[in-house]
Amino acid sequence: MAGWFASHPGDFRILQQALPYNSAMSFGRYEAWGYDPGVQRRYAEFVLAAEHLDPNSPLTNVPLAYPAPALRLLRCRYYFVPAGKQIAVGEIPGALPEGLLVHEVRIVQDRMTELRQLQDPGFSSDQKVLIEKMPTALPQPAVFPEDVVVTHKDSDTLEIAASASSSGMLLITDAYSRFWKVRAMPDSVQQSYDIVPGDYALIAIRVEKGNHHFTLTYEPPLFRLGAALSALGLAVFFGLLYVTCRKPPLARLRTEQ
């Protein structure tokens, strides 16, 4: 498998049905369904609907039966299935990239209607995006080729540069959460961005015409508190270690006696 991943570079997801779940993690790759301990509710509901399962089910530890076409919206490009003693690899046509500019929106406010429309094989996922409320300004048709580049990525942060030929929606094929925060860089044409759910489970951001440069950071409310407590714990530990090591050997011996 290491050889296959080495020969297929790129930022895409896979659907794992041949090897144990979570195996893609050992190769530094992403799965459409697997090891993430904190699956977002919308993402789970999208996947369950794509697999013709009940999106109202609270279960997330569900083995996926087949590579549903709608998984292409999650940038799931390949699936692995057992073939005797071998592993067969198939491709899901039309898998989206991590970020793309879309210039057509459709407002769908009913949850089940939106999920059904997204499962339609004819849904043009690279041309339109479903959102749940009217944007402040409607997108305009693109007038020249556009570009979206993820310049940096780690577990909690994305840095994105995009060139929009006209106003539109930037669709990012990562799971939507209200805890994503956008911070514009000084060189960005737009200094304020709003995040909304796009295609029910993904990240959509309205952008104006021009060059955009910003970071997306995942900041759940207890993240900062947890980080502060961890830093305080480390500070106390190293402080005690410093005090202990500064004691002369005899003083330490008397203390131990």
Order of helices and strands: HEEHEEEEHEEEEEEEEHH
Q: Low-confidence parts lasting 5 or more residues at pLDDT below 50?
A: none
**Count of discrete structural domains:** 3
User: For the largest beta sheet, what order do the strands appear in spatially?
Assistant: 2-1-3-4
Cα radius of gyration in angstroms: 23 Å
Provide the CATH top-level class of the largest domain. Answer: Mainly Beta
Strand content: 25-35%
For the secondary structure, the number of strands is 14
Q: What level of helicity do the residues show?
A: 10-25%
CATH-defined architecture of the largest domain: Sandwich
**CATH fold-level label of the largest domain:** Maltose phosphorylase, domain 3
Q: How many helical elements?
A: 5
Termini separation comes to 58 Å
Mean pLDDT: 85
* Class inferred from helices and paired strands: alpha+beta
The dominant shape is globular
Main beta sheet: strand number and arrangement? 4 strands, mixed
